[in-house]
């Protein structure tokens, strides 16, 4: 008699592990819905404070709720900055994600009076990421200004100077756009940890470890390297052909879920356009558009049956460069935005009260048959 084994889904493709109010990713249509809002519509008006209210409270904030969230995140950034002297050598790591993981991992799991855990951890991720950015450039951390919005203060803490309205709007647009994205690897990691009834700090620390991986959050910097190497639109096709011939990936193209252009790429492209109209330009937008078009053609020729279009990382590189962040800060900044979604999912997972415990198919050797009759 044989026992039929359940089919294995490598990478959990097609396996539904949770019901969620947070976001829906439609890969065929190229649509991202965050708590009832298409990402294009949400990013057109929402600040990071707005998206925190939406994800954590389930509704669009009015002026009073938005101000309450701004003030709480401001107080939480101040509290997080006070922790910097207690973090040992966590900020000495050469990689920003290693530093961010080490810093967050040292936070107490205890609640802080007067602060929600959501605000406490979200603010800490921004403060720690900015402090690493400053230390990496040989400068002292910049203390938060609790009166500023989260986006404005994050940019200020990273660069050491107040950002103009157009750059702050660019940071806000980016943080809102990446705040949540279905059951991605880091969000799933956070939910698995929460399902064990572990604490929020542990859940977010695990999520940071997942986001560090280049297959998840680590490609925006290399996109900028690619644009620098290509230099001008006329060089795009030849350079891309050479990369393909060498067996290397084209950075910022293709996505595990989307079969068409990532809607977040369009949102960030519009944000860069807005900055250029305000007089802020690195000269990369026209080059990025030309490279994207060339890459579509080159990849179509190489993989005619595989849809490979621009993903969020393609224009992430351009918008974060345009606001003045160094490329080694790109992935930590992804975490600064995504932490809002991680915590929302953690809260949602706690309501389920069930441990994640998937099965597996054993393919190893079996014990030898007994020699006894």
Short structural summary:
The protein is mainly alpha-helical.
Question: Tags for this entry?
Answer:
single chain, 373 residues, mainly alpha, Citrate Synthase, domain 1, Cytochrome p450-Terp, domain 2, 15 helices, globular
Structure write-up:
- The protein is an all-alpha fold and 373 residues long.
- The protein is built from 15 helices and 3 strands.
- A 3-stranded antiparallel sheet has the order 1-2-3.
- It folds into 2 domains: 36-214 and 330-352, Citrate Synthase, domain 1 (Orthogonal Bundle); 220-322, Cytochrome P450-Terp, domain 2 (Cytochrome p450-Terp, domain 2, Orthogonal Bundle), CATH 1.10.230.
- Strand 2 (31-34) and strand 3 form a beta hairpin.
- The radius of gyration is 22 Å and the shape is globular.
Provide the fold topology.
Blueprint lengths: L22 E4 L4 E4 L2 E2 H7 L2 H10 L5 H19 L14 H10 L11 H20 L13 H10 L5 H13 L7 H11 L4 H13 L7 H11 L5 H10 L17 H15 L7 H18 L9 H12 L6 H23 L21
Antiparallel strand pairs: 1-2, 2-3
Helix pairs in contact: 1-7, 1-12, 2-3, 2-15, 3-5, 4-5, 4-9, 5-6, 5-15, 6-7, 7-12, 7-14, 7-15, 8-9, 8-15, 9-15, 10-14, 11-13, 12-14
């Amino acid at each position: 008699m044989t026992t039929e084994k359940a089919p294995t889904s490598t990478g959990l493709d097609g396996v539904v592990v949770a019901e969620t109010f947070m976001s829906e990713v439609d890969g065929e249509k190229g649509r991202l819905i965050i708590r009832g809002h298409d990402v294009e519509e949400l990013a057109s008006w929402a600040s990071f404070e707005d998206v925190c209210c939406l994800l954590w409270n389930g509704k669009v904030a009015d002026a009073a709720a938005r101000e309450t969230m701004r003030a709480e995140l401001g107080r939480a950034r101040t509290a997080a900055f006070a922790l910097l002297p207690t973090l040992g050598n966590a900020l000495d790591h050469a990689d920003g994600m290693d530093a961010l993981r080490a810093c967050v991992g040292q936070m107490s799991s205890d609640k802080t009076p007067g602060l929600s855990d959501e605000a406490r951890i979200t603010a800490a991720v921004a403060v720690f990421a900015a402090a690493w950015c400053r230390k990496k450039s040989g400068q002292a951390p910049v203390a938060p200004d609790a009166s500023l919005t989260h986006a404005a203060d994050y940019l200020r803490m990273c660069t050491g100077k107040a950002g103009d309205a157009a750059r702050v709007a660019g940071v806000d647009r980016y943080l809102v756009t990446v705040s949540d994205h279905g059951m991605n690897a880091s969000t799933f990691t956070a939910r698995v940890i929460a399902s064990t009834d572990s604490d929020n700090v542990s859940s977010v620390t695990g999520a940071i470890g997942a986001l560090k991986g280049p297959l998840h959050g680590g490609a925006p910097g290399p996109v900028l390297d690619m644009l620098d190497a290509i230099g001008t639109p006329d060089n795009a096709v030849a350079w891309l052909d050479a990369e393909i011939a060498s067996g290397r990936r084209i950075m910022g193209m293709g996505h595990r879920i989307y079969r068409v252009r990532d809607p977040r790429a369009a949102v960030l492209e519009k944000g860069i356009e807005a900055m250029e109209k305000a007089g802020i330009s690195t000269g990369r937008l026209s080059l990025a558009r030309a490279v994207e078009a060339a890459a579509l053609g080159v990849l179509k020729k190489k993989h005619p049956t595989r849809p490979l279009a621009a993903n969020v990382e393609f224009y992430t590189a351009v918008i974060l460069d345009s606001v003045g962040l160094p490329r080694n800060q790109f992935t930590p900044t992804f975490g600064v935005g995504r932490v809002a979604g991680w915590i929302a999912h953690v809260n949602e997972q706690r309501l389920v009260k069930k441990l994640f415990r998937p099965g597996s198919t054993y393919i190893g050797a079996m014990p030898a048959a007994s020699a006894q009759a």
